[in-house]
Design goal:
The chain has a domain at 45-107. The protein is an all-alpha fold and 118 residues long. Helices cover 46% and strands 0% of the residues.
Length: 118
């Protein structure tokens, strides 16, 4: 799951480009290039991934705020706001990808099918 592989074969990539490509980090394959699984089970399936993304965002905000508080001696509110916003902007590609990956793995109804050895 951490590598963004298909939940059925765990070989094919779910996304066409790496997360480091900031212009195309969101381009998702329609089907798995290895097993052909349709990666969008139904239209609008990934709207539910917004809730996962929201959870990731809140967790990241809490972690960044705790780091600022404990390691930098309770800075002003503007420092909190600036650092949290900067962290969220830098993590947009990872947040987007992993919210979709986690949502598909948990709610896509797809089971792992190990490759058949001949």
């Amino acid at each position: 799951m951490l590598e963004g592989k298909c939940p059925q074969c765990r070989i094919g990539d779910m996304f066409s480009y790496p997360a480091s490509n900031f212009r195309r980090f969101n381009v998702m394959n329609m089907t798995c290039p290895h097993c052909g699984l349709r990666l969008e089970p139904e239209p609008g399936f990934y709207q539910g991934a917004m809730y996962v993304s929201y959870g990731f965002t809140i967790a990241c905000m809490i972690i960044v705020s705790l780091i600022l508080y404990f390691f930098f001696g309770h800075p002003s509110e503007w420092v909190y706001i600036g650092v949290v916003v900067a962290a969220m902007l830098l993590l947009v590609p990872l947040n987007y990808r992993y919210s979709r990956i986690l949502f598909l793995y948990l709610f896509g109804g797809v089971r792992y099918k190990p490759p058949q050895s001949n």
